Amino acid sequence: MIQYALNQTRRMLASSTAGLHFVTKLRNQCELTIGRAHGWGVSDDPEFNGEASWMRAVADQLQYVVDVGANRGEWTELLVQQKKIKGALLIEPSQSALGLLRSRLSSHPEVEVIEAAAGNAPGYFSFYEEDGAGKTSSLVAGFSHDGRARQVQVTTVDAEIEKRGWPSIDFLKIDAEGFDFRVLEGTRRLLADGKVSYGQFEYNTPWRLAGATLTFAIQWLQDLGYKCFLLKADGLHTPDVALYREYYLYSNYAIVRNDLVEDALQRFRSQRSLP
Predict the structure, then answer these.
(1) Domain co-membership, 8 together with 101
(2) How many domains does the chain have?
(3) Pair (6, 95) in one structural domain
(4) Which of these, 29, 186, 236, 244, could form a disulfide with 156 (CB 3.0-4.6 Å)?
(5) Which residues, other chains included, contact 58 with Cβ-Cβ below 8 Å and sequence gap of 6+?
(6) Going along the chain, which residue ranges are E strands?
(7) Within this chain, do residues 142 and 25 fall inside the same structural domain, yes or no?
C-alpha cells in the first residue's frame, strides 16, 4: 500500500512542472545538507578542517612531498616549519601565485617550484587564471569565477618524480580545483608500485564539470592498494558513497597505503588528543 502511494506520488510530481520544480529544490537542499556533513561550509583553513592535523600526524614519516596546486604555499610552509625534509615539489600554473610561492619559500632550498599544471598526460591545456592567486583558478572550464584563459604546460607527477630520481613520495597533496582525479591518474605508476605513502585530494563542484566522480576515484585507488578516508577536523572517516552518492561540494579526502592504515588512524587520534 505504501509503495503504491509512493509510486502514485512520484508519477504525479514527474508529470507536473511545479512538482518537478519542487523536488529539484528539495534535492538541492538535501545535497547541501549532505555536503555540510562532509565538510562543506565549515572552513578551508587547514587548522580547522583537519588538513593540518593530518599532516602533523604523519610529519615524522615525511621526507619527500609533492604539493599540486600549491597556490600561496600555506600547506608546504606549515610542513617545513614542522620538520626538515629532503625535498618538496610544488606544481602551480598561476603566474600570480608563483611569485608569492617563491617569495614565501625562498629560504628553503629543499623546495622546488614548477611552473606548470598537473594532469594525466603531458601537453598544454587552457587554464582559467584569476588575479591575485585566486583559489578557484582551474583547468576546468566553466568553474572559475572570473578567470582569463591562457595556455599552460601540463605535466604528470609520475614524470616529475622520475626526472628527479626520488625513491618515493611520502605525501601527495592535491588541490587542483576539479582536476584532482586527473592528477591521480598521472600518478598511477607510483601508486601502483606502492611508492606513495600518504596523501589527500579535494573534492568539490568542478568534479562534475571535469567528468569525474568520487565513487570511481575511491574504487580506482582501492584497486591500486590504497584506502580513502573523509578528512574532517575530528578524524578520518570511512566514506559511504553508496549511501550518500555524489554531492559535488567541498570536502577533503585522505589517501593511505593499505599497510599503513592502522598506524595512520592511531596517529591521527593521538594528534587530535594533543592540547
Answers:
(1) no
(2) 2
(3) no
(4) 186
(5) 170, 171, 197, 198, 264, 267
(6) 64-68, 87-92, 111-115, 117-118, 123-129, 148-155, 169-174, 196-203, 226-232, 235-237, 251-257
(7) no
pLDDT in tens, 200-250: 999 999 999 999 999 999 999 999 999 999 999 999 999 999 999 999 999
The three grid cell numbers given for residue 141, joined into one nine-digit string: 572550464
Q: How many CA atoms lie within 13 A of 256 on its CB side?
A: 25
Contacts of 42 (CB under 8 A, 6+ apart): 36, 48, 49, 232, 233
Contact 248, 208 (CB under 8 A): yes
Q: Same domain for 177 and 154?
A: yes
Grid coordinates representing 179 are 582536476
* Cβ neighbours, 10 Å, residue 179: 30
Q: Are residues 190 and 117 in the same domain?
A: yes
CATH number at residue 247: 3.40.50.150
Angle between helices 51-58 and 261-273 (to 10 degrees): 120
- Residue range of the domain that includes 13: 1-37
